[in-house]
Design a protein that fits this description.
The complex is a heterodimer of chains A (about 750) and B (about 160). With about 750 residues, chain A is of the alpha/beta class. In chain A, the strands form six sheets. Chain A has a six-stranded mixed beta sheet. Chain B is mainly alpha-helical. A two-stranded antiparallel ribbon of chain B has the order 1-2. The longest helix of chain B has 14 residues. Chain B is elongated. The chains are: A alpha/beta (about 750), B mainly alpha (about 160). At the A-B interface, α1, α2 and α21 of A face α1, α2, α5 and α7 of B.
Chain lengths: ~750, ~160
């Protein structure tokens, strides 16, 4: 087919030429067309990738912001225990009763589970001890069928596990000489599908397929119980080939917040409390570290410059039940000065030396401190002092300003010579200074464990408190190098941080992060991975991604789903900080036009929410623009928020409740000792008062009482917590939205 | 991209910096050179691979595989203000697809598209090809209705 010449008229020449060209395009034209399409498609894919990145950022920022709140809560408990003597006669007695319950004498007796009989009607899995392969297979198939293991078996399993773990050292030593390859897995967080996928791809645990699971088996995912039962079952079956390290979520206080406690109580209504008590013991008995061939160290979080493996081997690990409950005698809590100095690095185009920007750090305090400052004076920068001389590189200070993990804090030279001579302890409105001698042995040991479970690596050298998480340290390549060298090790494998590809190398290949919960933030957010190590000890990585649907989602669909979820969380945060945000917006809008510039809007969000996100890029999803291009800031709060507040309740209360919803839930769960879902009005009142005193939020006592009375719907003196939240439609509205979205996703056809 | 009104330079610079920092994992105002293409695209541009290579040559730090914000910012600002890699209008893309559509029947066979995309122009990698086919091949009929894709991909609100 050649290019025919046309004898048509002038006007038709062009048209015919085009048609001819289309019928038999010249190579040059084809080339042009191909390039054009490639250019165009690559543009689209790049923008998709961009959206994926910032979605990821949102999730991470919010996740760690959440964790920081958790630590603030625990510091509240300790503060109360250590400092408050009387609070209407229900002070520390109430709290200490709640947090240090009397050990149930039944639990250590062998007969405790034997007293529980299994009804004929039970259709779940039946196992017998000592466990055999058929028992673990039974459990596997049962869990795949969504069955629940009877409480009696759970208790028995936990009891046997506890017995076994008691015999194990803090640091377990393995060798590859007699086995094939060792598989190392990271965080699972209750994702049964991921565990099953790993077993499917890699093989069930056995003498030929030994495993190390590096902590964080529970919380967040919906099948934590099943995951941990399987892991413990295999541990009992193959104690020499199955190895479990403790993670920071193997901690009963973390469990209160992040879902494991709730899951257990939901699945085991009658025996839940006993089961939780046993879990608490078992978790604290899990080994802290694993070493392979004396060359590879595996711990959940990381290390610090104070990490001492000999010391770690010698301590009584089970005494550290929770990283979030300090040793009683310690006042080493809200070290505001510390965190003030190590505040978030500024992300600003104006400043080239963020370190020098002192005033910027003022914005990055703990919520409670900021609230206090707001009351006293907004511009007062000389407020809480910082003992800038004490550089406490070794201090695991909790409850400090948060930095998103994608931003590392500034390096401050570590001078272990002056750890901390002076501590600042907040007491309501002021700070009292408390001199402290060198930390007693108990605290040293506690810190050793916390560092192992909570630390994160970073690129900058040195070691500084992990202000992001509020526990453990950030450790630089020099710290890893030093520790590895000191003990003749060559590699550190850790988990604790979600990575898009399921794994990541850093510190020049000497530190590997391995994460095994795929789709952690949202469907499609990340892969999971595991490592295989043979005799040559060269790690090989295997990745996977669990897909809820049988048809694999395309990148587009995954990004959209993840984005939707991230934006929802973000909007939640906007609402929770509504009054602060409005106040700040109004400062930029003296004429009350209802608008501010995009730049001002971004600035306010960044300083109030303390989330370092690309606000301008996110703007179209969060707020409306006026015709002149400025931002209508009120529209931030549209589309979300509790329903009409109860008439007696001021907006502040609703917002505070919304923001601290999870924290409140935890407290309520603690108060509600028998986990019946009901608490007395008296208890409610006291709890609320304690909580608001700690937060520094002024809530009228009368308002609390009104509230308590109004929600006691059946007037019997007790409150159902769900109803309480329901009254503010906090739970309801968000659940509705999530439900709607998941229905939409389910219905959405493949386009 | 086009937000309806011309942005002033300072706003442009802020935008560039924000997108740049999304990839700045070490917080030292540098990004890996391999991310540059994505950043340029995400700022609304439609460069060819050759364009990107040229741009990188200007801003990369002596083969260190790193690009500093200091160099990236002025170069990218220029690109945006001069509209150097303008968007491709819908009609043009449609035309391009039509060129490839031998039978002029409004769709392409996956094999056809693969041949063009992977052999001509600035070829796709296998990964890029797989993603394109997976996303856009009509499930039952196993062809690619290009007018539909164009509609979907052109509308990219705000992002």
């Amino acid at each position: 087919m050649g290019c025919g010449t046309s004898v048509a008229t002038e006007t038709q020449v062009k048209k015919l030429e085009t048609e001819e060209a289309l019928k038999s395009p010249s190579p040059a034209l084809t080339l042009k067309a191909a390039v054009l399409i490639q250019r165009w498609y690559r543009h689209y894919m790049a923008r998709l990738e961009m959206r994926r990145r910032y979605t990821w950022n949102i999730f991470q920022s919010i996740e760690y912001a959440g964790e920081q709140d958790q630590l603030q809560l625990s510091s509240f408990f300790t503060y109360m225990l250590d400092n408050v003597t009387q609070l209407n006669g229900n002070g520390p007695d109430l709290i200490s009763q709640l947090l240090d319950p009397v050990i149930d004498p039944w639990l250590d007796r062998e007969t405790c589970y034997k007293m529980i009989s299994i009804p004929e009607s039970y259709t779940g899995p039946r196992i017998s001890f000592p466990l055999s392969v058929s028992d673990t297979n039974t459990l596997l198939s049962a869990f795949k069928e969504q069955q629940i293991l009877h409480a009696r078996y759970v208790l028995q399993l936990l009891y046997e596990t506890k017995k076994l773990l008691k015999q194990m050292p803090n640091i377990v030593h393995l060798s590859t000489s007699y086995t094939k390859e060792i598989t190392v897995c990271g965080d699972l967080h209750g994702r049964l599908d991921d565990l099953l996928l790993i077993f499917y791809k890699n093989g069930l645990p056995s003498a030929e397929t030994p495993y190390v699971f590096n902590g964080d088996f529970v919380d967040r995912g919906k099948k934590s119980v099943e995951v941990v039962i399987l892991l413990f079952a295999y541990l009992l079956l193959y104690p020499d080939h199955m190895h479990l390290n403790r993670g920071n979520h193997e901690d009963h206080i973390m469990n209160l917040r992040y879902g494991f406690t709730k899951e257990v109580m939901q699945k085991y209504k009658t025996h839940g409390r006993e089961i939780l008590q046993l879990f608490k013991d078992v978790f604290s008995l899990l080994p802290i570290a694993t070493v392979i061939d004396a060359k590879i160290l595996i711990v959940h979080g990381g290390i610090s410059d104070q990490t001492d493996l000999e010391l770690l081997s010698s301590i009584e690990r089970h005494k550290v039940k929770s990283a979030l409950r300090f040793p009683r005698r310690s006042l080493e809590q809200l070290d505001i000065g510390q965190s003030h100095r190590l505040g978030k690095r500024m992300r600003s185009t104006d400043s080239s030396h963020p370190r020098s920007s002192h005033s910027y750090n003022e914005n990055h305090r703990t919520p409670s401190l900021r609230k206090r400052r707001c009351r006293l004076s907004r511009q007062n920068s000389g407020d809480s002092t910082s003992s800038s001389s004490s550089s406490s590189s070794s201090c695991s200070s909790l409850c400090s300003p948060r930095t998103p993990s994608c931003i590392s804090p500034q390096t401050y030279p570590s001078s272990p010579s002056t750890p901390y001579n002076v501590l600042q302890v907040p007491f309501l409105d002021s700070l009292s200074f408390v001199p402290l001698p060198s930390p007693p042995q108990q605290e040293r040991e506690w810190k050793q464990i916390v560092d192992i479970l909570w630390s994160d690596p970073r690129t900058q050298e040195g070691c500084s408190p992990n202000t992001f998480r509020g526990g453990g340290c950030y450790f630089g390549p020099d710290i890893s190098q030093r520790l590895l060298h000191q003990h003749g090790l060559q590699l550190l494998i850790r988990s604790h941080e979600c990575k898009q590809e399921g794994y990541e190398l850093c510190h020049d290949g000497h530190v590997i992060t391995i994460f095994s919960a795929s789709n952690y933030y949202e469907e499609g957010s990340n892969r999971g991975a595991y490592i295989k190590l043979g005799k040559e000890l060269v790690p090989r990585f295997y990745q996977y991604q669990v897909s809820r649907t049988t048809r694999r989602l395309t990148l587009t669909q995954r990004v959209r789903a993840a984005e939707g979820s991230a934006l929802r969380s973000l909007k939640e945060k906007l609402f929770a900080h509504r009054s602060e945000l409005m106040t700040s917006f109004q400062q930029y809008d003296p004429k009350e036009t209802g608008c501010v510039s995009v730049g001002e809007w971004a600035k306010v969000l960044e300083s109030v929410l303390r989330l370092d996100l690309p606000w301008r890029t996110l703007r179209p999803h969060l707020v409306h623009l006026a015709p002149d291009g400025s931002v209508e800031y009120q529209s931030c709060f549209e589309d979300l928020g509790p329903g009409a507040a109860l008439p007696q309740v001021s907006p502040n209360l609703a917002e505070t409740l919304f923001r601290y919803r999870t924290d409140i839930e935890i407290i309520f769960n603690i108060i509600d000792k028998d986990h019946s879902g009901l608490i007395s009005i008296e208890e409610f009142r006291h709890t609320w008062r304690l909580f608001s005193a700690h937060l520094g939020v002024a809530i009228d006592d009368g308002a609390i009482d009104e509230l308590a009375r109004s929600i006691d719907f059946n007037k019997d003196g007790s409150i159902d917590f769900t109803e309480f939240l329901e009254a503010f439609r906090v739970v309801h509205k968000l659940d509705i939205k999530e439900h709607q979205l998941s229905e939409k996703m389910a219905k959405k056809k493949y386009t | 991209m086009a937000e309806g009104k011309p942005e002033n330079i300072s706003a442009v610079r802020k935008k560039i910096t924000a997108e740049f920092q999304l990839f700045d994992y070490e917080n030292n105002n540098t990004v890996d050179v391999r991310e540059i293409g994505t950043i340029i695209y995400s700022l609304g541009c439609f460069p060819t691979q050759a364009d990107i290579r040229e741009f990188i040559a200007e801003v990369e730090e002596d083969n260190s595989e790193i690009v500093h914000l200091e160099k990236f910012l002025p170069a990218m600002t220029k690109v945006l203000l001069e509209n150097k890699f303008p968007p491709i209008p819908r009609t043009k893309i449609l035309q391009a697809f039509k060129v490839l559509d031998r039978d002029q029947n409004g769709y392409l066979q996956p094999e056809e598209l693969t041949k063009y995309m992977m052999e001509k122009g600035e070829p796709f990698t296998q990964g890029e090809m797989d993603e394109m086919l997976k996303t856009h091949t009509h499930r039952q009929e196993n062809v690619i209705y290009y007018p539909k894709i164009i509609d979907k991909l052109i509308v990219d609100p705000g992002m």
